[in-house]
Amino acid sequence: MGSIYRRRRRDGSHGSVFWVKYYADGRPIRESTGTKDKKQAARFLKGREGRIVLGQPVMPRADRVRYEEIADDLKRYYETTGKREWREAKARFDHLRQFFVGWRVVAIGSAEIAKYTEKRRGERAANGTINRELAILGRMLRLAYENGKLVRMPVIRKLAEASPRQGFFERGQFEAVRRLLAPDLRVAVTIAHTFGWRMQSEVLALERRQLDLEAGTLRLEPGTTKNDEARTVYLTPELDALLITQLERVDRLSKRIKRIVPYLFPHLGGRRRCGERRGDFRKAWETACKNAGVPGKLRHDFRRTAVRNMVNAGVPERVAMKVTGHKTRSVFDRYHIVSPADLQDVARRLAAAGTFSGTSAPESLDSRPLTPQNTSRRL
Fold first, then answer.
1. What is the pTM of this model?
2. Pick the CATH number of 171-335 from 1.20.1260.10, 3.30.465.10, 3.40.50.1820, 1.10.443.10
3. What is the pLDDT of residue 331?
């Protein structure tokens, strides 16, 4: 049914790579096997003929598809479906491109993916970061397979990740850090601490029109959040007072630079950036945490803090998820952190309820303060 041959060059000699000719729907198809071994070329031809017999699609271009083509396909898929924001995925695409640019897709196998993983680990990338990049690559290859540009999917082995971060703020720690920040940043971190909103993409991106002091609400517009859903929250008395003061700062800035400033958190000083949306304040944050005696705290810890505070305050979990923007219960549960103080409170509640053996709680539980060192022993 098919044949194996070497292509004749212009000078009359034959090339070293074997080609095959076979028929699909009565149409002749000529395709390079990519090998100089005739036995491998024969297996290649049998594979093609087998697909035709089974009625499966034949992909004569598969050996010529490059990484850049399937990367563009995935980017286009994200843009048209809206399943992932390109701004979020771009950094991961960049790392993949630096390694795989120019590669034929059929050459990207498990061994080559393992080499990419090894390279990224050599660059001190965290296992979680590498796994997110491998997930992008896997989706890219899956889409290529679905589009008939890849014959089979390679196995992608993920790395073991560290346990999810458990960081959160006790109220005293938060107050200590907040006192050391600039006045406008105190307002921003209070929003994040109260509602668990993301600092960069949600809090600092707020505009004045999203604040309604008369109704006492603050809202995030559809499409501006990670899950693309809108959120509206009602202000606490503390935030209401802080935001009134922040609006006064922005109004004074508008008068000084003689133009309307639409942002709720603009740069209040400087020549070039004055009035523009405030960007990152990583250095100021790290300095404040260090001086407050809690180095290493992250602003993302506010999400765990807000979840814990709301649940402990008796807010229904469904409502708390709506406030913080957690779409799945599994992720929300991961953010609900239990602290040593929470565990100590369990012992106090049990003691108060008289659930210990005997008719009343041991005297030592009433007289001795609970500490992480003696709580478990006495229970």
1. 0.57
2. 1.10.443.10
3. 56
